Amino acid sequence: MIPGAYPEVDALRKISFADALGSLQAMLGKHVTVEFNDHRRFLGCGFSGDLERVETLPPDHVAIRLVLSGGSLFLDPAEVTVHVSGDCVLGFGFLEFWVDSGPSIKIEVPSE
Q1: Distance of alpha carbon 32 from alpha carbon 39, whole angstroms
Q2: Tens digits of per-residue pLDDT, 71-83?
Q3: 37 φ, ψ to 5°?
Q4: Do the Cβ atoms of 66 and 72 come closer than 8 Å?
Q5: For residues 32 and 48, is the Cβ–Cβ distance under 8 A?
Q6: CA-closest candidate to residue 83, choices 67, 72, 97
Q7: Tens digits of residue pLDDT in 50-97
């Protein structure tokens, strides 16, 4: 029998943006890694830092800014579909935000 490529990773499950906010709240104060990828072309980057806060943005306070110790990123629920693997609230797994235009953003608390 040939093992799967990533046997420790659960299948991705689609979740609501509100549920993703709950997972991000559980990550506050923790060191996270962020990966940005566009699987349609050779493009990607990554960075890490402590997740310091999640801010809502005007005018309607629906889009958010994730503030990390080393930078920030912006997400709008109207532009993304959210998937989760594992259970971020319990401290394992990751969130993936699939942007409608193609890129994906993965946020994970690395295992210690």
Answers
A1: 22
A2: 999 999 999 999 9
A3: -135, 145
A4: yes
A5: yes
A6: 97
A7: 999 999 999 999 999 999 998 999 999 999 999 999 876 666 689 999
Q: Is 13 helix (H, G, I), strand (E, B) or coil?
A: strand
DSSP-assigned letter for residue 103: -
Q: Which two tokens stand for residue 109?
A: 């608390």
Report the Cα–Cα distance between both ends of the chain, in Å, rounded.
Answer: 30
Q: Are strands 80-87 and 92-99 parallel, antiparallel or unpaired?
A: antiparallel
Q: How many helices (H) and strands (E) does the chain have?
A: 1, 8
Q: Are 93 and 81 in contact (CB under 8 A)?
A: no
Domains of the chain, earliest start first = 13-108 (2.70.180.10)
